[in-house]
Design brief:
It is built from 12 helices and 9 strands. It is α/β, with parallel strands linked by helices. The protein has 3 domains: 37 residues, no CATH class; 219 residues, Spore Coat Polysaccharide Biosynthesis Protein SpsA, Chain A, CATH 3.90.550; 70 residues. A 9-stranded mixed β-sheet has the order 7-5-6-4-1-2-3-8-9, sandwiched between helices. Strand 1, helix 2 and strand 2 form a beta-alpha-beta unit. The N and C termini lie far apart (59 Å).
């Protein structure tokens, strides 16, 4: 019976399995066997960069050039092989065109992922994780509130043996209400989820490759990446980093967005909220039974009276409010289950700008998320040979890649 053995890849895992099977006479020299390697043992080329910097971008045209001017010199000073992965999360301004121009300037270390819509910061980071190739991955916001010069601090901490390094903002430059709300949610989250992150709102973090592979294996629709990665870490740590005021643009997180994000964190990593409501329901039932017995005894001793009518109304409204809140909390869990079981794509990638072979190319996608490591992507197209007029091919992949003057 003919078989086919996969032996590609620099790690030689396929060849090792072949020799092992032949040693125990389980495989003849003329036989071949089909083998699919999981993503956890995926063979990676030897020239992979040591560091990948993942940066989601959404309507940041005013501050992108300042980001480039500080980011690339800071990475060049590290003296290691790196790549920068930008994810354009459906920006409505010229962010896509500016990213394309930067890709043309530094195609050897720059890659750009273009979404065909806005899917949120965490989904953009997930796409960057799936495209990243570095042995270490650092996530950084594009607003320059976390200085790129502090990337070396995170890497130095990882050199001490840590596989996950979070960051603590030295002096927050946010508004007072965000500072108070963040501190309160940090305390509540730690008690509920047992995930210890001093500053959960800071996305400036470093991850080792095995954590990135574990995160990529998760297909959750609603998640909180720092907490998800923390759950896979063997030896996490934190460092203090700088924090600056936003110099250009405006924050993309409104109060409602922050509330939704914390709901994702609470319901995605713990069942404690449901258990607390179960305990509260039992306590209220016990107190209600005791109060009913008290009213019966009081009626038998004193007789009927109407003075306590408004007290009963107040208790009734209080219990109704608790019941509605519990129903809403239960609905949050059920809603997330509903979103998960639909199996809809978490995001859609329209094109990927990256250096292919000897030249630059655009790898396009039709529908669905980025392929899982080890899968064959039927929609990936190889870059065509460069001709005199190569720009129309890029424009066909994404109309917003060109600046206004080029249009």
């Amino acid at each position: 019976m003919p078989f086919a053995l996969i032996t590609e890849g620099s790690c030689g895992l396929g060849r090792f399995i072949t020799n092992w099977l032949q040693t125990f006479h389980l495989l003849n020299n003329s036989s071949r066997i089909s083998l699919t390697l999981p993503c956890a043992v995926e063979c990676r080329p030897m020239n992979t960069p040591q560091l990948s910097v993942v940066i989601p971008v959404y309507n940041e045209e005013q501050g992108l050039q300042s980001l480039f001017d500080r980011l690339y010199p800071a990475l060049d000073k590290l003296g290691i092989a790196y790549e920068v992965v930008f994810i354009n999360d459906g920006s409505r301004d010229r962010s896509a065109a500016i990213l394309r121009e930067q890709f043309q300037k530094r195609p050897d270390v720059t890659r750009v992922i273009l979404f065909n819509g806005n899917f949120g910061q965490h989904m953009a980071i997930m796409a960057g994780f799936e495209q990243s190739r570095g042995q270490r991955v650092v996530t950084l916001d594009a607003d320059l509130q976390n200085p790129p010069e502090d990337i070396g601090l995170l890497l130095a901490k990882m050199d001490e043996g840590h596989d996950y390094v979070g960051s603590i903002r030295r002096q927050r430059s946010d508004s007072w209400w965000r500072h108070v709300a963040s501190k309160a949610m940090n305390g509540l989250r730690e008690r509920i989820t047992r995930i210890k992150m001093t500053d959960q709102g800071c996305m400036f973090r470093a991850y080792s490759r095995h954590i990135i592979d574990a995160v990529n294996s998760c297909k959750e629709v609603n998640t909180f990446i720092p907490a998800l990665a923390y759950s896979f870490a063997r030896n996490p740590a934190e460092v203090v980093v700088g924090h600056e005021e936003r110099t250009a643009g405006e924050s993309k997180y409104s109060l409602y967005s922050l509330i939704r994000l914390n709901f994702d964190l609470m319901t995605g990593f713990s069942l404690v909220p449901l258990q607390m409501f179960s305990m509260l329901g039992m306590l209220i039932s016990v107190f209600s039974a005791m109060f009913f017995v008290f009213l019966v005894v009081r009626r038998l001793i004193i007789g009927p009276e109407a003075e306590g009518l408004f007290t009963l109304f107040a208790l009734m409204f209080f219990l109704i409010g608790i019941a509605l809140f519990g129903i809403g909390l239960l609905g949050e869990y059920i809603g997330r289950i509903y979103q998960q079981v639909r199996h809809r794509p978490r995001y859609l990638v329209e094109a990927v700008l990256e250096k292919q072979g000897k030249g630059q190319g655009v790898r396009g996608k039709r529908q669905g998320t980025m392929p899982v490591a080890g899968e064959v992507d039927p929609f990936a197209v190889a870059a065509e040979p460069r001709k005199k007029k190569a720009k129309p091919a890029v424009a066909a992949a994404h109309p917003s890649l060109f600046s206004d003057a080029q249009e």
